[in-house]
Every structure is written in structure tokens, then in C-alpha cells.
Automatic annotation (TrEMBL):
Domain Rieske: 20-102
SUPFAM superfamilies (alphabetical): Bet v1-like, ISP domain
A molecular-function term among this protein's GO annotations: oxidoreductase activity, acting on paired donors, with incorporation or reduction of molecular oxygen
Stated name of the protein: Aromatic ring-hydroxylating dioxygenase subunit alpha
Length: 399
């Protein structure tokens, strides 16, 4: 949790070799639409090609002198001109403009000086992933059983989803693996988030059912906790917070899901919550809102987080408002949950830096079928981490 050597190895062996979430196709619906963001600390941008309509993901660096080519967070462009020497690239990455081209010697391969695409780019139901590793397995093989849970999230939103414009971005001072554990940890909910449960009780939510469910390892480091909980879900589970006027619309949504997917699958979509980890750093929280969250550690004790809200496309304004309110009220940087979690993680980090404890205990539930408040889901993450880290992890453990 504190070793610079381990951190450097994680960047090289995990973040540089895995499939990483880049963004969602809905963020760039039209030709020339683009978004830029760091991917495992490296500047990239995603653009919809004007000629092909393809989703392109490029290293955000000019092939002339390396300057950033895309200098806005989002927008629409016919071309990207490097501000340094005005080399210009189209939305398919081809080099189209070189000032004073005649000054270059014959034989310069300008066609080969287009923007460098990521080694691999692929999409699963609108979720765009990239990898710096040209030899990685195909995306669907990598996702393994996590595909089924992404399907539940997307189908539960009617099958046609979009990322709501705007992001939550924040940083905190702890190790990134602590956030992985926390994001799929049902054990801490009632103790750490006691204030939120008191808030739910104050608005009339029935808390007698509590939180119960199971932990499921999904292969390749992915895992999920799946559980019932007292809060409402914008998918199709009413609660007092939504107001009486929302009952009819939520009942209609549930009836549509039952007709389309059957009662059993609709029950999973409407009643069950999911905290899904797609290894190594994508979290999809399908709870009282659907949050898509990524994070990256610039140092052993620092994490940068970006979160988006996923929602049904063309959702009624009243439902969208309730969804966004739930998103911010619980999971926003100033909500009920996030400040609690970050305080806990930073407290853990200070404890590790003190040297009294060398590793986490994640043995809870080993003597029974794993429940949502057990830790089998974390063990799935750590098994993959151990596999990729190899001898570096062994050396760190021996210390």
C-alpha cells in the first residue's frame, strides 16, 4: 500500500497491459465529436471518425514534437491542429497538413506520421475500452462473466443508455487498491454510512429488510456484490423520496421490463443492487443511481477519481431529475457516502504508513457461501493482482 517499487510495477504490469475503460459511445454521437481524458495517466482522446463513423482512440500527442493535439475536454472538430507547429490531423488520425512541406527531404513518410492509435480498442454494448497491450485477449474474453452484469445494467435501463453530460472529479490520499476493496465491500455499509441510513428512516423508508445478498467472483479479477437494500431504484423500485406522483411511471417501467425480459430477470433489474468491479479500475454502481467510476493512482498514496452518471436515453425529465439527485445525494463528492469512504480510506493509509500492519485481512466468508458482506469478491481481485505482479508482489510480501 505504500511501496514506490510496487506502485511502479503496478503501472507497468497492470495498467499498461489490461483493458481499461475509455468512455461511452454516447459521449460522441456525431461525426467529429470527441472527448479527451487521461487513461492510466497517459493523455488520450476518443473521437468519432467523420469518414467511417468508427470510434477512434488516439494517443494525444503530435507525431512531430509530441505536444498535445487535442486541447479541449470535449467538442466537435473536423481536424486537430497542433498549436506548436500547426501539423494537422483529421478525425481518422491521418496527417493532412504540414506547413512548408517542401522543406522536408524526399522520402519522408508523411502517411506514416498520423496520430498513433491505442494498441487495441473495442466496445461492449457502448462501453469503450482500450489497451496499450497489442497482445491482450479480445475484450469479450477479458470481461468473462462480468458481461452478464453489464447486460443487466443496460437492459434494466431499457437497452439504450447514455452518459449524462458532466463529471464528478476528485482526489484523495490513499492507495488505489483500498478504493477497489471499498467499492465492492458490503461489510462497511451500515457502520460507515450510518448517517445515510438515518436519513432514509427520516423520510419514511422501511429499513427492516436491511441489506442482504451475495458476492460473486466473475473471473479475470472482476467481481460483483449483488444485494437487496431499502433504498429506491430509478429503474423501477419506488420509495417515498421519489414522491407519490412517481408511482405510476415507475410501475409502468417495471411492467415494460417484465414484458420484455420476464418476471425473474425483471426482478433482478428492479430490486437487486449491484456493485460491479471490472478489473482493474472500473466500477459500475447500479444502486439508487447508476454510476460509472474510474480511478488511477499517480503515486502509492494518491488516487484521482472520475465518475459519470449512466441513464436511459430519452428518459422523462422527472425521472432523470430523481436519478441525478440520488447520484449526488449518496455518491457525489459531497454526498452521504463518498466523504465517509474517503475518510476511511485515508485513515487506513495513515495506519499502513505507520508500519504496524503490513497487509489487509480479507478472509471473511471463507467458511461459507460468500455473502454480500463477505470478501470473496476482493479475493478475486487480489488473485488477479498477484498473477500480474508476480515476483514484485512476492518481494513486497517478504518485507
Amino acid at each position: 500500500m505504500t511501496s514506490p517499487e510496487v506502485h511502479r510495477a503496478e503501472i507497468e504490469r497492470i495498467f499498461s497491459t489490461s483493458w481499461l475503460y475509455v468512455g461511452h459511445e454516447s459521449e460522441i454521437p456525431e461525426p467529429g465529436d470527441f472527448v479527451r481524458r487521461p487513461l492510466a495517466g497517459r493523455p488520450v482522446f476518443m473521437v468519432r471518425g467523420a469518414k467511417t463513423g468508427n470510434i477512434n482512440v488516439f494517443h494525444n500527442t503530435c507525431t512531430h514534437r509530441g505536444a498535445l493535439v487535442c486541447r479541449q475536454d470535449a467538442g466537435n472538430a473536423k481536424a486537430f491542429a497542433c498549436f506548436y507547429h500547426a501539423w494537422t490531423f483529421d478525425t481518422e488520425g491521418q496527417l493532412k497538413g504540414v506547413p512548408d512541406r517542401d522543406a522536408y527531404a524526399d522520402g519522408v513518410d508523411f502517411a506514416g506520421l498520423g496520430l498513433k492509435a491505442l494498441a487495441r480498442v473495442a466496445s461492449y454494448r457502448g462501453f469503450v475500452f482500450g489497451s496499450f497491450n497489442p497482445d491482450i485477449v479480445d475484450l469479450e474474453t477479458y470481461l468473462a462473466d462480468a458481461k452478464a452484469y453489464l447486460d443487466l445494467v443496460i437492459d434494466g435501463c431499457g437497452g439504450d443508455v447514455e452518459i449524462v453530460r458532466g463529471t464528478n472529479e476528485y482526489s484523495f490520499d490513499a492507495n488505489w487498491k483500498l478504493l477497489v476493496e471499498n467499492s465492492i465491500d458490503g461489510y462497511h455499509a451500515q457502520s460507515t454510512h450510518d448517517t445515510y441510513f438515518k436519513y432514509l428512516a427520516s423520510i419514511g423508508t422501511d429499513l427492516h429488510g436491511g441489506v442482504s445478498g451475495r458476492a460473486v467472483p466473475l473471473g479475470n479479477g472482476h467481481a460483483v456484490i449483488e444485494y437487496t437494500a431499502p433504498w429506491g431504484r430509478p429503474v423501477a423500485k419506488w420509495e417515498p423520496l421519489f414522491g407519490d406522483e412517481a408511482r405510476h411511471e415507475i410501475d409502468r417501467l417495471r411492467a415494460e421490463l417484465e414484458q420484455r425480459h420476464g418476471k425473474e430477470r425483471a426482478h433482478l433489474m428492479c430490486e437487486m443492487n449491484r456493485n460491479l468491479l471490472i478489473y482493474p479500475n472500473l466500477i459500475v454502481n447500479d444502486i439508487m443511481a447508476v454510476t460509472v467510476r474510474t480511478f488511477f493512482p499517480p503515486a502509492p498514496g494518491a488516487v484521482d477519481v472520475t465518475a459519470w452518471q449512466l441513464a436511459p436515453r430519452n428518459e422523462l425529465a422527472s425521472l432523470r431529475q430523481r436519478r441525478l439527485d440520488s447520484f449526488l445525494t449518496f455518491l457525489g463528492p459531497g454526498g452521504f457516502a463518498t466523504p465517509d469512504d474517503l475518510e476511511a480510506l485515508e485513515s487506513c493509509q495513515r495506519g499502513y504508513e505507520g508500519g504496524g500492519v503490513e497487509w489487509n485481512d480479507i478472509s471473511r466468508g471463507m467458511g461459507r457461501g460468500p455473502m454480500a458482506n463477505d470478501e470473496e469478491q476482493m479475493r478475486e481481485f487480489w488473485r488477479r493482482w498477484q498473477l500480474q505482479m508476480g515476483s514484485t508482489a512476492d518481494r513486497a510480501a517478504r518485507r
